[in-house]
Amino acid sequence: MSLLAPSQPTAGRPLDVRAIHDAHADFVWCSLQRLGIRPADLEDVMQEVFVVVHRRLASFDGSSLLTTWIYGICLRVAAGHRRRAWIRRELPTAELPDEDGTPPSERPDELVAARQARAALDRVLERMDLEKRAVFVMSEIDELPAGEIAAVLGVPVGTVWSRLSAARKQFQVMLGRERPGLGRGAGR
What pTM did the predictor assign? Predict the structure, then answer.
């Protein structure tokens, strides 16, 4: 299934924030997740994105796809949010049980290993450059084709491949630092 929502307004209808929200909320939500916004912060950051869309809607000139313009806003809002994250004084607590409804592993050691691997993945993705992370997640996790990623980002397909190659290298290096021995052979 494509994560791209309709990207242009219906011919003859003016752009309206409510219509943009209705058509692109899922796209914004997924984009913010790809950019590393924590689940607890997604609603607030998404609201911030649509506040910016509302303020800047008059500046949208149609020279790019609406999704590309919105993605640029998501990128800037996510970067600002991540820069402010160090200010938070939240104290981490024990992990909550999985909410996806999957039964726990029969063996506790497998469950612990899976949680540790997920935590290592989250730490590596958190430290990646935002643009590389977004392309990496869209390709490797969301399994979007390069052409669709290019359309979302508003860049040529060659740029997607270049960023993806750099992101894979960055991921491997960071994963190797995170857990020596894991970084080898983990990529495609």
Answer: 0.62
